[in-house]
Amino acid sequence: MKRIAVLTSGGDAPGMNAAIRAVVRNGIYHGLHVFGVYRGYTGLIQGDFKELSVGSVGDVIQRGGTILYSARCDEFRTEEGRQQAVEQLRKHQIDGLITIGGDGTFQGAKKLTELGFPTIGVPGTIDNDINGTDYTIGFDTAINTVIDAIDRIRDTATSHERTYIVEVMGRDAGDIALLAGLAGGAESILIPEVNSSLEEIVARLKHGADRGKKHSIIIVAEGVGSAVDIGRQVQKATGFETRITVLGHVQRGGTPTAFDRVLASRMGAKAVDLLLSGKKDMMVAIRNNEVLGIDFDEASGQKHHLDLSNHHLASILSI
Ligand code: ATP
């Protein structure tokens, strides 16, 4: 193996740059030429490759977003598009590819391996919705962003004695809502993995008000539904003054936390090690603080596991 390439695809996540840096530097350390592919699978099909030097990834470990840019590429979903991508990889004499992204990115990567091209995935998504890994790059930063917002909202919620409904990202997964809700002391956490009735939410709010609580914060994962609709229902059922905050894309940006930088550095470097050891179709994962490679089949297209004991704990701690 002499020449490898790296790309970022799907939704961006804080820490992707730290992962790119680790791929480039660990690759060069082992005597490889490392190429960056711009705009994910779109750049792969169009042949938008550029060799990356040690210095080209300087001063990026602390930056959010991705210096390689990201894209969603419908052409790559077609057989023809993927054939073009493989042709470009061969034309540039690339021996192995590292894709940093989410589940969709890995479904695409798996198809590249089926065409005989060695590909290793690195999980980079704020949603933490990939099976087989305890954490994905960007998740820790995203929950810290949400906690910061909850703390600020809590101040104004108390001053005005209001109920706040805060909608957070996560696609179909409740990971962001659950951990940010637990760490932020939310009164209720609504996630797709747990059915919560309006009656339950209302009972908790009334119980809190009866014991003198001046504010309430309800966290809603986007996979559950619209915070606006839930807010209307809650206000109608309780008569409490209710406000809605949809955090949106602020959760995708910002400086990666130390946890995400360390995770990204370890995972990016591991992806290079896997290619060098002859592995062709794996995703890098972290389990019990060990970074390892797992089969794409275990990671991609599978429902990921969320530890619901934290949901039970949050409901006990917010009585
Ligand atoms: P995030 O979870 O952060 O949104 P993601 O990687 O899941 O990231 P997607 O938009 O689902 O984001 O996928 C990224 C790209 O991967 C798509 O634009 C497409 O080019 C490719 N891709 C997704 N699914 C497939 C598939 N089934 N076959 C081939 N390519 C795919």
UniProtKB/TrEMBL annotation:
Positions with a binding annotation for substrate: 125-127, 162, 169-171, 222, 243, 249-252
Domain of life: Bacteria
Annotated residues for binding of ADP: 21-25, 154, 185-187, 211, 213-215
Main localization category: cytoplasm
Enzyme class: transferase
Keyword check for Acyltransferase: no
Co-factor(s): Mg(2+)
Subcellular location: Cytoplasm
Active site (UniProt): 127 (proton acceptor)
Regulation: Allosterically activated by ADP and other diphosphonucleosides, and allosterically inhibited by phosphoenolpyruvate.
EC number of this enzyme: 2.7.1.11
Pathway: Carbohydrate degradation; glycolysis; D-glyceraldehyde 3-phosphate and glycerone phosphate from D-glucose: step 3/4
Keyword Metal-binding recorded: yes
Description of how the protein assembles with itself and partners: Homotetramer.
Family named by the database record: Belongs to the phosphofructokinase type A (PFKA) family. ATP-dependent PFK group I subfamily. Prokaryotic clade 'B1' sub-subfamily.
Protein's name in the database: ATP-dependent 6-phosphofructokinase
Annotated organism of origin: Baia soyae
Phylogenetic lineage: Bacteria, Bacillati, Bacillota, Bacilli, Bacillales
The gene coding this protein: pfkA
